[in-house]
Structure formats: structure tokens, C-alpha cells
Amino acid sequence: MRRVARVVLLDPDDRILLLHGHEPDDPADDWWFTPGGGVEGDETREAAAVRELAEETGITDVDLGPVLWRRRCSFPFAGRRWDQDEWYYLARTTTTATRAQALTELERRSVAGARWWTCAELTRTHETVYPTRLAELLRRLLDEGPPAGPVTLDTEIV
């Protein structure tokens, strides 16, 4: 089980930053997802969240908050199955310009860019977004604030 730290990054207008990914050899097989990635060595999940955000977006000026959600997922990608235990951290930033700084070779072949989304845009989209209930989760977060403790989301198997 791969340990993963993800970031629910919100700007001053409460927009969320999502990355646009696709299968390396099939750009038409695409989806949107939160920045983040695998924990390396003895790194903490918090450190992994900040590092991955910097590598994937160039954004380093963030206030990392609590773990909002935890999710287990399993999905095919780049010719293998990935089994992940994901923790989603809340973060805030005033920086909205993005520029990938240190993508891996696989990320260079499979990440097409980034976009800030409003909750309304997420609710209306017909594009694939992970986690699949992100619009609903974001709406609850914006309306009620962070949960008292991490919420365990349904396991997603694709």
C-alpha cells in the first residue's frame, strides 16, 4: 500500500487547485486530481504534502492545515495497478500562478497542466475528478469548515 499525501489547496476566493492528468500514452483518457504524491523514505506525510505541492505546482507559500479526509483507492495507471492510502491536507495560499518545478519522467508524460476551480464549476463538470465526491466534499468544507478529525471516505476501486 503506497502512502500518499494530497493537498486541497484553496486560494483567497475559495477556488481549489486541480491538476489535469491522463494516461501517458492516451491523452484522451484523462481526469482531474489534487496535487500530491507518495511519501519518500522516512518523510512525514506533512513534509510529503509540501514537497509534492512545490514540485507539481511551484507553490511554496502555503499554510498547511489539518488532514481533512483519508481514502484508500486502487486504480490502473501507466501499465500497473496502484494501491494507495491517501491523506488529504487542507492548505491555503495567496499564490495562484503555477509552474511545475520537478516532475518525474512519468509525471512529465501524464500531467497536462493545472487549473483553479470554483465549487460551482466542480459541481457542474462532466469531467472525471478524483476523489469522485470532491464537489460535495468541497462544498461541505466551505460551508462548515474543516471537520473535527479526518473523515474516512469510501474506498474507490477503478
Short account of what is shown:
The two termini are 16 Å apart. The chain contains 4 helices and 10 strands.
Description:
The strands form 2 sheets. Strands 1, 4, 5, 6, 9 and 10 form a 6-stranded mixed β-sheet that branches. A 4-stranded mixed β-sheet has the order 7-2-3-8. A hairpin with a 2-residue loop joins strand 2 and strand 3 (26-33). The model has no long low-confidence stretch (mean pLDDT 92). It has a single domain (2-157), classed as Nucleoside Triphosphate Pyrophosphohydrolase (Alpha-Beta Complex). With 158 residues, it is α/β, with parallel strands linked by helices. It has 4 helices and 10 strands. The protein has helices spanning 45-57, 105-110, 119-124, 134-144; strands spanning 2-10, 16-23, 26-33, 36-38, 63-77, 80-92, 111-117, 129-130, 151-152, 156-157.
